[in-house]
């Protein structure tokens, strides 16, 4: 060889930016950071069974949301439950962790001010904590990649075994602490000190509950004996203390407060609650971190409005009305007449609320003047969360009716029918055509089968745009009310901490919902308040997991429906009766113990110990 | 043109051809057997869904994903599509004291029974209609240390009825060790479940009891058919 090429093969790619150029420029870091935030595992409007950010590519998943795996809601058509491959976040998780580790490597060399470096360090650790929290709650103990891995010719050294579940949770809390120490208090769309503390409050409560309630559901296998899943009961105290400490730091600093905390009437409270979610940007006092959806379009907008608004306002979109809040959920809300306990919907004179045997002409039903009078004294948040029969939404009377009782006492239920009595014609579904009602007709799967439609997060201001990814409602990932509830739960479950302040936290949230009577701090009161206040924010799913209640709450579990019927025996007066039944066309569902942890993908290649029973 | 046709023919031959090496033989072996109560020598009653399983781990691979065989209600199991090889076999997550794993070579039609000690035995069972109710009385014999979490009578249209598969049930939480002198009594009211199971037909009834142990499955008495 007499000749050799000089550098001719070392061509720089023209479509990629080298790391040193990107990280050498603060603006480049900013762009990189935006991408990291986008990858954050935020369980928002684009979170479905297939994972996060399901608003690009083919977003058609039938609108089957995580809430439909809890008692919160049923889908109009699907009766699915847990699948082994659902809610996975493994590859994407480690991709995000690698991306953030690369940034952490680059921070010391950046040409920026020290406080900017500190802020970047804080943000990076917040993102990393968020990622490990999402992994820990799905998989238990996971491999902890604390610094960037370098490939040096062999893949073997890159294979990191799983840490114990305890080590994983401790690492999450440690990262939260690093983030909180380095971050400032300025509010905005990026993490600040309080965001890190709110994450710590949530994660510590999750870990504490696992430790306290782990014995409710024990499993066996290698992952258990190696402590890769499961926490000792003795760890609970430390985690509850961490939750109390983080929550109290937010509460005592006073940087956040509840949005419109003292409504004059329940009606005002209901509207305030609705507004909080229709646009969380209007509630900067309460909302600690927002994920924005600025523009319609693939990977930008989301699909909550097209999937979940009632059929009557579909505006040409063919698949509305998928979110059906259950009768269980509606029962849960308190009545202002009897604070401190859930108020099941009473439909008969004898007050029996466990009879799901269907309409019986011999039963003595209570008669109501409107299809929603039966909910009159119920908690404002019911009215702000669900669209109830015969209420107004976008200037339209939402008709949800399951049938009628003919003057002879025979009922026609969930069958399209009509009857003429005197000069008037009555329709089973409350109106003659499919565009004029939103309940019970199985047409297109567009009408609720539980008797309730969905309001929380829905955009009331503009008509539905009948296309994919057109919704731009922003998502409140952390809000002050959750911090208060975390605090109250940690205090009551651990029996430590400031019980007076915890009771105040609980009752402040209730006052914002129009309650005027304080209730005592008990574990049951906290859980009911949590389910009601945080309904449909994808919290119930994890509450059932972390408190190890899923397998008892969902053991051959069926959900229930409230059938509103017009009682034509009362003519000429317009009267309605209601019948409590099992959700039509639904089957019992059972939670299997193994689903407390997700299966780890790719153990053939990564050599990790699989979770039990997979 | 002719050349193009040859080209296409050649392409098709490559695309649709297959190497003989790809065509592995299908599974030829099978494993079947019974779960037998070690004392009474009777088959041990199981659930068809979420019941006891037979874990088989094929040798020669690492890591290897265990396979789980389902046990039928009557306590028998069979998988007739396994590859011939050495396996470690063990009944797990059942309603009995988990036995030691055994290594066997599965080839042809291998039969492997397991003698196991059930957590609980349901004895002196009597299920009868009394007025509007269906009443079950029985005694419990407990063979392991621990508490009985609950007892129950389960009802379904399907003869494979059990705790995980029922349309109606009457359960009682015990959270106490079984008392050999107590006659346990469960009263099932068919009226409560007439929406799912209309009166005037016959249904399958099965009494079960669940130990409060890790991954325990309920123990059962044989199914009884009754008109209600």
TrEMBL record, chain B:
**Pfam families per the UniProt record, alphabetical:** DUF3823, DUF3823_C
Leader sequence residues: 1-18
Gene3D superfamilies in alphabetical order: 2.60.40.2060, Carboxypeptidase-like, regulatory domain
Q: Name the keywords, alphabetized.
A: Signal
Reply yes or no: does the keyword Signal apply: yes
Q: Does the keyword Metal-binding apply?
A: no
Database matches in InterPro entries: DUF3823_C, DUF3823_N
What residue stretches are annotated with the DUF3823 domain?
Answer: 30-117, 120-225
Can you say what this protein is called?
A: DUF3823 domain-containing protein
């Amino acid at each position: 060889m007499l000749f050799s090429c000089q550098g001719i093969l070392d061509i720089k790619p023209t479509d990629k930016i080298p790391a040193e150029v990107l990280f050498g420029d603060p603006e480049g870091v900013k762009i990189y950071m935006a991408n990291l935030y986008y990858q954050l595992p935020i369980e928002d409007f684009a979170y479905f069974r297939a994972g996060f950010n399901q608003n690009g590519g083919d977003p058609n998943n039938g609108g089957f949301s995580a809430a439909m795996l809890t008692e919160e809601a049923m889908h109009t058509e699907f009766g699915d439950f847990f699948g082994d491959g659902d809610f996975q976040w493994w590859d994407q998780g480690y991709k995000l962790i690698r991306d953030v580790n690369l940034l952490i490597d680059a921070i010391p060399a950046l040409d920026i001010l020290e406080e900017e470096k500190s802020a970047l360090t804080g943000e990076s650790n917040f993102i990393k904590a968020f990622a490990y929290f999402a992994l820990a709650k799905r998989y238990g103990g996971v491999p902890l990649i604390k610094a960037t891995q370098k490939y040096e010719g062999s893949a073997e050294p890159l294979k990191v075994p799983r840490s114990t579940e305890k080590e994983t949770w401790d690492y999450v809390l440690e990262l939260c602490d690093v983030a909180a120490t380095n971050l400032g208090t300025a509010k905005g769309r990026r993490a600040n000190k309080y965001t890190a503390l709110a994450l710590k409050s949530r994660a510590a409560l999750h870990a504490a509950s696992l430790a306290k309630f782990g014995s409710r559901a024990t499993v066996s296998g290698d992952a258990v004996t190696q402590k890769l899943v499961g926490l000792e009961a003795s760890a609970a105290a430390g985690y509850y203390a961490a939750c109390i400490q983080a929550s109290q730091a937010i509460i005592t600093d006073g940087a956040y407060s509840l949005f419109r905390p003292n409504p004059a009437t329940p009606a005002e409270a209901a509207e305030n609650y609705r507004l909080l979610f229709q646009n969380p940007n209007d509630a900067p006092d309460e909302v600690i971190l927002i994920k924005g959806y600025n523009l319609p379009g693939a990977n930008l907008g989301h699909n909550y409005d097209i999937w979940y608004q009632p059929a009557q306002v579909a505006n040409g979109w063919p698949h509305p009305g998928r979110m059906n809040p259950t009768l269980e959920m509606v029962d849960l809300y308190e009545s202002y007449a009897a604070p401190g306990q859930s108020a099941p919907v009473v439909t008969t004179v004898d007050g029996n609320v466990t009879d799901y045997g269907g309409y019986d002409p011999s039963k003595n039903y209570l008669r109501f003047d409107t299809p929603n009078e039966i909910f009159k004294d119920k908690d404002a948040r019911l009215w702000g969360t669900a669209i109830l029969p015969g209420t107004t939404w976008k200037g339209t009377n939402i008709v949800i009716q399951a049938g009628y009782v003919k003057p002879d006492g025979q009922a026609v239920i969930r069958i399209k029918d009509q009857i003429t009595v005197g000069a008037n014609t009555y329709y089973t579904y409350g109106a003659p055509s499919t565009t004029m009602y939103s309940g019970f007709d199985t047409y297109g799967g567009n009408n609720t089968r539980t008797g309730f439609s969905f309001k929380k997060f829905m955009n009331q201001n503009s008509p539905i745009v009948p296309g994919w990814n057109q919704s731009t409602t922003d998502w409140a990932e952390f809000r002050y009310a959750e911090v208060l509830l975390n605090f109250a739960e940690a205090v009551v479950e651990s029996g430590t901490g400031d019980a007076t302040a915890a009771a105040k936290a609980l009752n402040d949230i209730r006052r914002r919902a129009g309650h005027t009577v304080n209730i005592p701090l008990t574990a049951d009161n906290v859980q009911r308040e949590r389910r009601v206040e945080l309904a449909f924010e994808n919290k119930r799913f994890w509450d059932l997991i972390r408190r190890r209640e899923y397998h008892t709450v969902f053991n051959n579990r069926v959900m229930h429906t409230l059938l509103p019927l017009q009682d034509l025996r009362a003519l000429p007066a317009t009267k309605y009766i209601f019948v409590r039944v099992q959700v039509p066309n639904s089957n019992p569902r059972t939670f299997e113990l193994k689903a407390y942890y997700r299966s780890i993908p790719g153990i053939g290649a990564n050599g990790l110990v699989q979770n039990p029973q997979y | 043109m002719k050349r193009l046709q040859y080209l296409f023919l050649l392409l098709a031959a490559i695309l649709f051809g297959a190497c003989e090496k790809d065509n592995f033989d299908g599974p030829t072996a099978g494993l079947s057997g019974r779960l037998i109560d070690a004392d009474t020598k009777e088959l041990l009653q199981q659930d068809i869904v979420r019941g006891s399983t037979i874990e088989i781990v094929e040798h020669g691979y690492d890591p290897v994903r265990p396979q789980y065989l389902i046990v039928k209600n009557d306590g028998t199991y069979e998988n007739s599509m396994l590859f011939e090889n050495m396996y470690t076999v063990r009944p797990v997550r059942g309603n009995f004291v988990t036995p030691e794993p055994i290594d066997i070579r599965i080839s042809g039609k291998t039969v492997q029974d397991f003698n196991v000690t059930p957590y609980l035995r349901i004895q002196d069972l009597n299920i009868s209609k009394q007025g509007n109710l269906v009443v079950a009385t029985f005694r419990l014999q407990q063979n392991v240390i621990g508490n009985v979490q609950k007892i129950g009578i389960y009802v379904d249209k399907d003869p494979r009825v059990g705790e995980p598969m029922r349309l109606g049930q009457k359960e009682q939480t015990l959270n106490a060790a079984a008392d050999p002198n107590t006659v346990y009594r469960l009263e099932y009211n068919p009226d409560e479940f007439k929406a799912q199971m209309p009166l005037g037909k016959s249904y399958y009834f099965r009494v079960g009891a669940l130990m409060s142990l890790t991954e325990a499955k309920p123990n059962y008495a044989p199914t009884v058919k009754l008109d209600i």
